[in-house]
């Protein structure tokens, strides 16, 4: 599971450069080791991101090594890049409230069409728990990074399950409100 | 409370290969039906989470399965033998030798050391002190609380006390471990560790675990879940 969204890949690569200049290949490797897990970055993503950062003045070319293949550029972060990383780290992420989720829509539609919304919720609970079991097994066999990543997913799934439980307990009331 | 949940594939009694099974259990406290036709089964070595909202009857189901509480009607069978037909002494011996228990609170004897607590079921089964404490000690080590063996329950943290309780429950080599909200009083980190150690040990010894919990992260350590709602148990998809 890749834990870094596309939006923050550039900031993450910039942050990795703060400890010293690196080639694109080294950056990819450092990223994959810490954040990529089973979904590593493509080389193309790294080089297109570095081109954009270069254009925006957030990194500079520190040196070029000529080799048998294409030239290997070594990138260094600029002062503007350091400021950009600091700003990103200090800025809280926008919480995602998942209002009007698909699950809510399904429950209401089930009630409107006379289907068993309780069955729907039970089926969803089983599916959530199935995934939670997988993550728990993975966590038990993993290192600390794996544990933290799995815990993040587990806590989110747990929040969904609490909602499922609460909704199941309120189905009669919800039915009386949504049915004409 | 009234029953409204439809019967699931396990709602009705013992199937082939079940170690412990219940069929059509009814139990009423005053005018409240705690169990209203609940069924359950578990196989040897299986870990089954019993989930459900507060007051749904999950703890009553555990108590009936363990022979602690007699249902008003319905049957509980262990290895094919009906619990209610056993003489009291036989049922007590079963609870001591074949069943282990872990609860949320207050299960350790405050006057005894952690080691003496862990050795208690073995001593009650007639084992000599030295042998009982030697076995209990290895379980304390296994549960990573060997360092508090000489301390009393009041002198150790909640997480340590709960690990001692798990060691005590497993020391006698039970076939079924009943755990009722075993991490309910612990923080996330301690709760996770207790569940990890408990399930690892149970899988290694082949003990079946009936795990009552309202926490999905705890239930995720099980092989499958049964949901109790309005006194009826329902196995979820992906069961046996």
TrEMBL record, chain B:
Record's keyword annotation contains Plastid: no
SMART domains reported in the protein's UniProt record: AAA
Alphabetical keyword list: ATP-binding, Nucleotide-binding, Transport
Keyword Secreted set for record: no
Stated name of the protein: ABC transporter ATP-binding protein
InterPro entries, alphabetized: AAA+_ATPase (IPR003593), ABC_transporter-like_ATP-bd (IPR003439), ABC_transpr_LolD-like (IPR015854), MacB-like_ATP-bd (IPR017911), P-loop_NTPase (IPR027417)
Top-level taxonomy: Bacteria, Bacillati, Actinomycetota, Actinomycetes, Kitasatosporales
Domain ABC transporter: 20-240
UniProt-listed PANTHER family: ABC TRANSPORTER RELATED, IMPORT ATP-BINDING PROTEIN
Organism this protein belongs to: Streptomyces daqingensis
Pfam family, one: ABC_tran
Organism domain of life: Bacteria
Any one GO MF annotation of this record: ATP binding
CDD domains the record matches: ABC_MJ0796_LolCDE_FtsE
């Amino acid at each position: 599971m890749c834990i870094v969204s596309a939006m923050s890949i550039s900031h993450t690569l910039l942050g990795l450069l703060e400890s010293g200049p690196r080639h694109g290949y080294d950056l990819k490797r450092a990223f994959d080791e810490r954040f990529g897990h089973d979904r590593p970055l493509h080389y193309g993503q790294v080089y297109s991101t570095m081109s954009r950062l270069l254009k925006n003045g957030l990194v500079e070319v520190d040196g070029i090594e000529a080799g048998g293949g294409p030239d290997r550029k070594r990138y260094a972060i600029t002062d503007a890049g350091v400021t950009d990383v600091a700003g990103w780290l200090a800025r809280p992420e926008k919480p995602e409230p998942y209002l009007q989720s698909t699950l809510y829509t399904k429950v209401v539609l089930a009630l409107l069409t006379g289907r068993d919304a309780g069955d729907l919720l039970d089926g969803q609970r089983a599916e959530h728990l199935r995934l939670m079991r997988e993550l728990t097994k993975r966590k038990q066999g993993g290192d600390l990074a794996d544990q933290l990543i799995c815990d993040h997913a587990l806590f989110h799934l747990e929040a969904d399950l609490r909602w499922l439980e609460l909704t199941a307990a309120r189905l009669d009331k919800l039915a009386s409100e949504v049915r004409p | 409370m009234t029953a409204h949940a439809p019967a699931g594939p396990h709602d009705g009694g013992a199937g082939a290969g079940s170690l412990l099974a219940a069929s059509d259990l009814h139990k009423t406290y005053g005018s409240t039906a705690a169990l209203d036709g609940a069924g359950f089964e578990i196989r040897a070595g299986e870990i089954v989470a019993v989930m459900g909202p507060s007051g749904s009857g999950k703890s009553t189901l555990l108590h009936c399965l363990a022979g602690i509480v007699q249902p008003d009607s319905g049957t509980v069978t262990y290895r094919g033998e009906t619990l209610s037909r056993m003489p009291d002494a036989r049922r007590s011996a079963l609870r001591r030798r074949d069943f282990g228990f872990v609860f949320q609170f207050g299960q350790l004897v405050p006057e005894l050391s952690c080691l003496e607590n862990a050795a208690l079921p073995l001593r009650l089964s007639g084992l000599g002190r030295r042998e009982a404490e030697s076995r209990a000690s290895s379980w304390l080590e296994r549960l990573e609380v060997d360092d508090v063996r000489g301390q009393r329950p009041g002198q150790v943290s909640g997480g340590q006390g709960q690990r001692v309780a798990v060691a005590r429950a497993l020391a006698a080599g039970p076939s079924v471990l009943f755990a009722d909200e075993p991490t309910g009083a612990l923080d996330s980190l301690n709760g996770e560790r207790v569940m990890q150690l408990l399930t690892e040990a149970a899988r290694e010894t082949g003990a079946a675990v009936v795990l009552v919990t309202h926490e999905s992260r705890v239930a995720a350590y099980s092989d499958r879940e049964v949901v109790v709602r309005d006194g009826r148990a329902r196995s979820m998809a992906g069961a046996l």
